[in-house]
Amino acid sequence: MAVETKLSHTAAMILQAVNAGYVYGFSVMEMTGLPSGTVYPAMRRLERDELIRSSWEQQAIADAEQRPPRKYYKLTRMGKVTLEASRKRYPLLAKLIPSEQEEQV
Amino acid sequence: MMPQPSFLCDLVCRGLLRGASLLVPGRQRAEWWREWRAELWHVRQAYRAERSFSWMAEREVAAFCLGAFPDALCFRDQFKQRRIPLATTKGSATQCVQMLFSLITISYGVALLLPDVSAILHFSAYRDTRNLMLLRDAHFSGDSVPTISVEQYQVWKRRRQELFNGFAFYQVSEQSISWESNMPTKGAVASASSNLFDLLGLRVRYSREAPGSLPRLILSEQMWKSWFGSDPHIFGRMIQVGSESAMVSGMIDPGEWRLPGQTNAWLLQPQDLGFSEGLGFVVAHLQSSHAGWGEAWHMSAPTPTGTPDDFFCESLTERTRGPGDVFLFAILLACLALPATTSLPLGEYRASSRKLSWFTRVRRWSFLGCKLTLLLPIVYFVSLDLAHLRSGMDPITSEYLQLMSAFSICLFGLRWSLRDQRQRCPVCLGKLTNPARVGQPSRSFLAWNGTELICVSGHGLLHVPEMPTSWFSEQRWLYLDASWEVLFAEPGFGTPGYF
User: Do residues B12 and B46 share a domain?
Assistant: First the structure.
């Protein structure tokens, strides 16, 4: 995937949400206000393009909390570079979904 | 007891997810299902925080579940993109199938051009041939000469029958035919009882009904073309056949007449009048209750003098049989002979660390099936063409020629199909190229020697042993992994990451 990849606003918003700590599908939905039919396919494409990667939560943690384990998403190095480029393209992105560090500041 | 609404809603949501999961390719389905089930659990928890049932919350949950369908379709699209396209290089699977289709078209075209083959292809079997019997005097060995007198036929027809429920008679003689101002021409005409074609079930083209007791003349296609110049207005007109007038009432297609006696036309006599004193042929229809009697048997029947005589009855099955039986027999022989000419296994294709997709495996076997299927019509048409290349050939010779040619072509075709399949990449079905000899023949028993071929798309290597040994008896396919990608980076080539 080339570094200068241009994402749509929706994809950039989802990438920003994942970066901001909303690391599973439903939390991204809640944060962005996008429907499930948009969020999940977009996350598949981001994963296919190696901008995010997924991993399953440890079963022991889920068992301890008496719930099924969930799939977490995380930005890759390429994803972070692409997100930086997208922030320049969509300046309001960071204000719409502030990341944890920005919130602390 | 009525189930709780929340339970029903849960059931509907799970049903929606299950339905959507069917759209996901089988290999990814389990993980997809696991993720969506977990997400659904959390969505439920979020919307039912207050632990009370609410239609609004259930609606939100259902809307969430409906989103599974676009996601499943997205998965499906991604899977499709990973399908390996067929090789497009020279000798590709597509070219191979196109070549086979071309051969079918050419051989069928030639078959249509050859009159005898065309007649065979357009032949529609007589009605109920199994029960249509040709009757002859048992004192004669062959059925090509007429043996039944008109009187004998009349006796059979008049008597109450338990064996047969229909008789037809015909006798062939040279008769002069003249019409309008044309010079009379001599031709072989079969004077026949009016029910002959009805009994046989033969289809008469341009059929016309003759008024009253007027005889009807049915032409052969060859006579219609050569004598009447394919004039469609001849049907329904009067013509002089011998000493009587007849109306031209139709034509039958070439190859339809399979009974003894070469004729140019058939003169259907109303009320069985107008037959000469000579001998003729009798066709009878056996009652269905005696259908199990077999294809040939003797019977004793009264003669016009009242004394019984021996007659031989033979069904028309043999006469009306198409070339299909010979073809099937040749196929069977070729299949039996095939193992003696080439090895049947296609080689060892071991499962690699990353398994071939179901689609790719099915495609490979479908290609082999397609080749074998397309081979059959080629064998059929080419063998017919060769057997009937010369018009008017003896039927026995034609049959022999057809059998030999069908056997040879089929054997060659089967051999070619297997060898071709062995020389193709199991992934993209491209022809393997760049053969390289490896090893030294003098070290056959100590080290491997043979030929290696490579798939130009980089899917694998084929090792063909020079001499089969106990440890390397068949050719072996080696799948190349992603580390080979750098060698096959040319545009248009699928990389080894194809699984």
Answer: yes
